[in-house]
Specification:
Oligomer: single chain
Shape: globular
CATH superfamily: Gcn5-related N-acetyltransferase (GNAT)
Strand order of the largest sheet: 1-2-3-4-5-6-8-7
CATH class: Alpha Beta
Order of helices and strands: EEHHHEEEHEHEE
Largest sheet: 8 strands, mixed
Number of helices: 5
Helix content: 25-40%
Length: 192
């Protein structure tokens, strides 16, 4: 397994969890199962078990090494408690240089600005020439998800469209607002 990537904010640590964190990751999903249900696909029961996450964290690490995704979990600064997720997935290179952003936060940590803080740090990493050097980050939200709408606007994401029946969320096809943030200072990676 490669060395986990770690990013620090003032109040939390963003990092790729290791197999040893599987219990903390599963506990996060169990604690927030009902709270997140209206915003996520339905999950199999195994999704909420430590053994599932032991394997899935290895898959996540492999995807990172292969340049296909970068999946972070938010940890409280002083302990190993998982309080959120923030992911860059579907990474596209060549002429696109883009990815999709997804995130979720523990119900007990809502309204404190933690996700905004975390995503600012992640976006800096994604756009940095020494980080992912991406040109574009896309993030989509349910039309009635005002928290996500406000957060994405605050971060500079602009609405680019509306997709009907875009994703199956909580057991039914749901429309989504399509947003994106572009890196106006993007430069091609330097080749040694």
């Amino acid at each position: 397994m490669s060395e986990p990537l770690v990013l620090q904010t003032a109040r939390c640590t963003l990092r790729q969890p290791t197999r040893d964190d599987a219990g903390a990751v599963a506990a996060f999903y169990v604690r927030n199962r009902d709270f997140h249900a209206p915003f996520e696909p339905r999950r199999p029961e195994s999704y909420y078990e430590e053994t599932y996450w032991q394997g899935q964290l290895e898959v996540n690490n492999r995807e990172f090494v292969e340049g296909r995704s970068c999946r972070f979990f938010l940890f409280e600064k002083q302990c190993a408690k998982v309080i959120g997720t923030a992911n860059f997935t579907g990474i596209m290179r060549l002429a696109m240089q883009a990815c999709y952003l997804g995130y979720s936060l523990d119900q007990d940590y809502q309204g404190r600005g933690l996700m905004s803080e975390a995503l600012k740090t992640m976006i800096d990493y994604a756009f940095s020439p020494t980080g992912m050097n991406l040109h574009r980050i896309m993030a989509n939200h349910l039309p009635d998800n005002r928290r996500s709408e406000t957060l994405l606007k605050k971060l500079g994401f602009e609405v680019e469209g509306y997709a009907r029946e875009y994703l199956m969320i909580d057991g039914r096809w749901r429309d989504h607002v399509l947003t994106a943030l572009t890196n106006r200072n993007w430069q091609p990676a330097q080749v040694d």
